[in-house]
Amino acid sequence: MFKEVLREITPLTINDCFTFFSRKKKEFTFPLHTHEEYELNLILNAAGTKRVIGDHVDVIDPEELVFVGPNLPHGWFTHECESQEIHEITIQFHRELISSTFLQKNQLLHIRNLFEAAKRGVLFSHETIQQLAPRIMALDKRSGFDSILELLSILHDLSISRNTRMLSDITFIKETQSFNSRRLERVFDYLNRNFDKEIRLTEVARIANMSEVSFSRFIKTHTGCTLTESLTEIRLGHVSRMLIDTSHSIAEIANKCGFHNMANFNKIFRAKKGCSPREFKRNYVGQRVFV
Predict the structure, then answer these.
(1) Number of folded domains in the chain?
(2) How far apart are CA 246 and CA 241, in angstroms?
């Protein structure tokens, strides 16, 4: 699939810490694309625009703020947007803006978690937009060291903001997920290798060397999801890839990914994606560009 998405070479040079773009437009014309850099996108006056982040497809509100990690396919498309005054502010910065060693320090825990979440794309709440949009829009008025301090401050405030939402499914992304827990890494390695099979809480708790009750509490605390929710997300990530990458029927794909009841599969898929598997395939494939 990735060979069918535009690989963007951004204007960010090795001598720059970040780049800032502010554009006024009547439509979105850039194709679905990826790049090595992190990207923060603030989009105003664009209700009805279609957003594609990884395997996530949705229609946006008038205002939105999204943080995208390296190599994650993303794009915005005019769709039903009728605004003649779209305002898009884009900030791009290198992975090395904060070194991996420095990022492991205790004081950077929240930013480290934000960068980890960005691998799947992060959507911020309207409250966060109201609080941070003026600072984001004014970032180009700063220069030198002061501009870097302000960018880091914005990233920190984003990292502690509430009601964020990760967009793409965990198994759709190419980057590996870090859980800061060896137990969880063993568990998710097992889930990723056996997602197409029946998986019971008993065997997963045994892998974590915990009782079922303790493990259920443990995974919920560390991921925000139950075991069933985590497994469903992994399976849906594989479903999304196969819908895009293969010519298998929807029933075949569902069965290969551990969904053996089509009615239940369709219900779960629609609840998660907001559309049927067939609609998802049509919507996503319609945004691809062959290069």
Answers:
(1) 2
(2) 8
